[in-house]
Amino acid sequence: MAHLHITSWVIALALLILVLTFSRAGRAKPAKITQMILRLDYLLILYSGGSLFASYASIDLLVIVKLLVGLWAIASIEMVAIKVSKSESASSWWIQLLAAFALALILGFGILPMGILPA
Questions:
Q1: Is the four-CA dihedral 87, 21, 78, 69 of positive or negative sign?
Q2: pLDDT for position 118
Q3: For residue 28, how many other CB atoms are within 10 A of its CB?
């Protein structure tokens, strides 16, 4: 399930780049379609993340923090896409996205026991 989760958030980042590219090029319809596909990808991220959350033997504070940081990252991705498509400033949401993404990577790969980095 971890492979599905990682693949789905990599796809989400690629779709975000497409949404930004289409929006900045003034192509509203392809940007809107790509944003809808991105929203469907959120469901895949939530499903696989929920499955990983349920697979932990003991739910401790760090697992709950990782879950909340993941939701924060999804909300930040969505807000960046919305703000850019409306030609509004998204700098605060970019900062939040980078912070949430960095925290999620550190928690998921480095600190939590199901991560791939050695402890």
A1: negative
A2: 55
A3: 11
